[in-house]
């Protein structure tokens, strides 16, 4: 049987993720769901009508779901479910301002995933993503390796883009890495940033690197401020779709994701942005690599910052 992936939430993030997943042409079916009547079906119809132009056979199915889980039968047998349901930020809002409202949504979605797609790998993107990932794991009761969040692939891609633009080099010559949480305690890892194999620190002065780090940390807010309504979705959907592809293809790719950390880096019991190997079982393993003392201190600080908030989501 061909692979099946579901995207919950047919807003900007969800619809562009569904489009990217369909265009990969590796899935038999992409299911797109939302609580809005007709919208997912309309988007699915539209994407399917692009198949002969873009040259893919994957079929997209759009389903509207009800308050008591009506419609969720459509996700049965999904290998991967990407959760994008929830409100995005408005200008001036922090991701944390979304905590309570999105917690209600993500809990309801997660309970239905547990019921209708009990073997799926779940990738959470709804914000605040570190907390929503912890909540989705609690509400599904899935093993922790089967629930993880998207942040690091996006933050790393933003950082990579800024470095490439600053040095006027192709993005593919840049290797960058960000760990930590998706927010104020994002931890860029300069010791792992190179351009054509040369350390970034030899190519740019420390102040310039710090400027790019700050811009990366505020990367989402910069887009939100320009759009005025809604938040970024092209780069975010590229990140989530790539992660779903890695799972579907059991690729073993190592990417930064929001994963359950259990002893790595001396940190335990928290969902945190670390590098992990992705495969059909979700997180095959968290990959611990060398960090400088200050990078490690930053990661530990990020862990403590998200730990308390993640404990709170149990009551939301
Ligand atoms: N992790 C990241 O890196 C990252 C990046 C960008 C955006 N986000 C987050 O992704 C989420 C979605 O962003 P967006 O731009 O698509 O927003 P959007 O407003 O365009 O879409 C959200 C969709 O979720 C739907 N929805 C609400 N409750 C639902 C439910 N119970 N079941 C199914 N669908 C439901 C809404 O009807 C809406 O269509 C936001 O929380 C945003 O903050 C995360």
TrEMBL record:
The keyword Transferase does not apply. The active site is at residue 182. The keyword Oxidoreductase applies. Its EC number is 1.1.1.37. This is Malate dehydrogenase. Catalyzes the reversible oxidation of malate to oxaloacetate. Substrate binds at residues 89, 95, 127, 158. NAD(+) binds at residues 9-14, 34, 102, 125-127. Pfam families: Ldh_1_C (PF02866), Ldh_1_N (PF00056). GO terms for molecular function: L-lactate dehydrogenase (NAD+) activity; L-malate dehydrogenase (NAD+) activity. Residues 4-149 form the Lactate/malate dehydrogenase N-terminal domain.
């Amino acid at each position: 049987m061909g692979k099946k992936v579901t995207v919950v939430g047919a807003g900007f993030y969800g619809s562009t993720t569904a489009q990217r997943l369909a265009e990969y042409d590796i899935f038999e079916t992409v299911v797109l769901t939302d609580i809005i009547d007709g919208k997912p079906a309309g988007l699915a119809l539209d994407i399917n009508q692009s198949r002969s132009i873009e040259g893919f056979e994957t079929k997209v199915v759009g389903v509207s779901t009800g308050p008591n889980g009506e419609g969720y039968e459509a996700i049965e047998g999904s290998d991967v479910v990407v959760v994008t349901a929830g409100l995005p930020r408005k200008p001036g809002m922090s991701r944390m301002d979304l905590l309570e409202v999105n917690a209600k949504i993500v809990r309801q979605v997660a309970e239905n995933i547990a019921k209708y797609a009990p073997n799926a790998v779940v990738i959470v993107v709804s914000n605040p993503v570190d907390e929503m990932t912890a909540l989705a794991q609690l509400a599904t009761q899935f093993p922790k390796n089967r629930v993880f969040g998207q942040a690091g692939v996006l933050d790393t891609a933003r950082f990579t883009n800024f470095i490439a633009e600053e040095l006027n080099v192709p993005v593919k010559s840049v290797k960058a890495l960000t760990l930590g949480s998706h927010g104020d305690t994002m931890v860029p890892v300069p010791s792992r940033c190179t351009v054509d194999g040369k350390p970034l620190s030899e190519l740019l002065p420390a102040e310039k690197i710090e400027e790019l780090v700050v811009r990366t940390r505020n990367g989402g807010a910069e887009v939100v401020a320009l759009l005025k309504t809604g938040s970024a979705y092209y780069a975010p959907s590229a990140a989530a779709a790539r992660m779903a592809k890695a799972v579907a293809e059991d690729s073993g790719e190592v990417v930064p994701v929001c994963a359950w950390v259990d002893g790595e880096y001396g940190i335990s019991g928290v969902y945190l942005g670390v590098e992990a190997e992705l495969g059909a079982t979700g997180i095959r393993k968290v990959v611990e690599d060398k960090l400088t003392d200050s990078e490690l201190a930053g990661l530990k600080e990020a862990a403590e910052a998200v730990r308390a908030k993640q404990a709170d989501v149990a009551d939301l």
